[in-house]
Amino acid sequence: MRRPHLLVLLSSTVVGCLLLAEALVSLPGPVTLVSGMAGVFFATGFSLACALSLDLRLGPTEWLVTSVGASVALATCTAVLLAATPLGLTRVSFAGVLGSCIVLLAGVALARVRFTRTTQPDVQQHRVDLDRRGRH
Asked: What number of other Cβ atoms are within 10 A of residue 57's Cβ?
């Protein structure tokens, strides 16, 4: 994972932690507004995209569109599922579930990056140089 993606993923994790904190205690209004908007419109989808795929050949625009689309879809599904439960759809329940999803997905993405780095074989070790005739 490239450094900018890692920084954005860590920022998404901070947003998820802020949403979890908002579910437990009351945070100031601007913090709640920024973390809520970032969680609903970007952080959830970016964490999901990183957790599902390590193929980073997408450009910044594709990452943004994927993140926004997946975030809105997950936030909508979360709201519908919470409304159908006895717990109900409240600000606290929505922030708690969405924050938990962001932190969980970011953890999966970071674990996949860590696991992939330690188990990927070194390509240079297995390369065989051949001359024009195909001999070693």
From this structure: 6
In a domain, 35, yes or no: yes
Domain annotation covers residue 102: yes
Task: Supply 48's token pair.
Answer: 């999901």
Cβ(66)–Cβ(58) below 8 Å: yes
Q: Which domain holds residue 24?
A: 3-119
Give the tens place of pLDDT for each residue, 38-84: 889 999 999 998 888 756 677 888 888 989 999 999 999 999 999 99
> What's the token pair of residue 114?
């860590």
Rounded to 10 deg, the angle between the 91-119 and 3-24 helix axes is 150
Planar angle of CA 12, 54, 117, nearest 5 degrees: 100
- Cβ-based neighbour number of residue 14 at 10 Å: 15
- How many structural domains comprise the chain? 1
pTM value is 0.76
CA–CA gap between residue 26 and residue 52 (Å, rounded): 33
Residue 117: the pLDDT is 65
In a domain, 131, yes or no: no
